[in-house]
Amino acid sequence: MRAYTVLLPPGAARGSVPATAPPAEAARLIPEGFSWLAFLFGPLWLAAHRCWAAALGAFLLTLFALVLPAPLDGPALLGLHLLLGLHSHDLRRWTLTRRGWRLAHVVLASGEEAALARALAAEPRLAPLFAGPRA
Q1: Could you please report the per-residue DSSP string of 27-77?
Q2: Element (H, E) at 95
Q3: All residues at 6 or more sequence positions from 113 whose CB lies less than 8 Å from its CB, including other chains
Q4: What is the predicted pLDDT for the residue at 27?
Q5: Which is it for strands 102-109 and 2-8: parallel, antiparallel or unpaired?
Q6: Phi and psi of 111, rounded to 5°?
Q7: Would you tell me how many other CB atoms lie within 10 Å of the CB of residue 29?
Q8: Which of 44, 50, 49 is nearest to 62 (CA)?
Q9: Distance separating alpha carbons of residues 27 and 9, to the nearest angstrom
Q10: 25: pLDDT confidence band, cut at 50, 70 and 90?
Q11: What residues does each domain of the chain span?
């Protein structure tokens, strides 16, 4: 089982989903746990998820780790990428909440589809918010 957080875009408050048109962005399901892609690609993974401040910070820390003396550069770079793998989804949630997104639910499920089904079973009015564009 994996935990997923359901985040709503700024235009949709929990419990008051507009019936006319979905917001410009769809609601997001963000998993908890380690991300191998963030571990391997670090700043590029963050930039692909539009976490610009975190991507810039990770890039600068990567450059700093690369200019360290020879016995320290490898462990520093490994430690940085390990932290990025562990906290990448937290950085995504942090970025979205800074943009005005709101936490709607936390669901436990074996996969993303099951998590979406559980979230919609808990609150069916969220269905129009998952129909918008995906990022």
Answers
A1: -EEEE-S--HHHHHHTHHHHHHTT-HHHHHHHHHHHHHHHTS-HHHHHHHH
A2: helix 70-98
A3: none
A4: 87
A5: antiparallel
A6: -155, 175
A7: 18
A8: 44
A9: 6
A10: confident
A11: 2-130
Residue 90 token pair: 């937290």
- From residue 84, give the alpha-carbon distance in Å to each of 36, 57, 119, 129: 9, 11, 27, 29
The β-bridge relationship of strands 2-8 and 28-31 is antiparallel
Tokens 């380690």 belong to: 34
List beta partners, residue 108.
3
Paired strand residues for 105: 6
| pLDDT tens by residue, 46-71 | 999 999 999 999 999 999 999 999 89
Tokens of 24: 């410009």
- Give per-residue pLDDT as tens, 34-49: 999 999 999 999 999 9
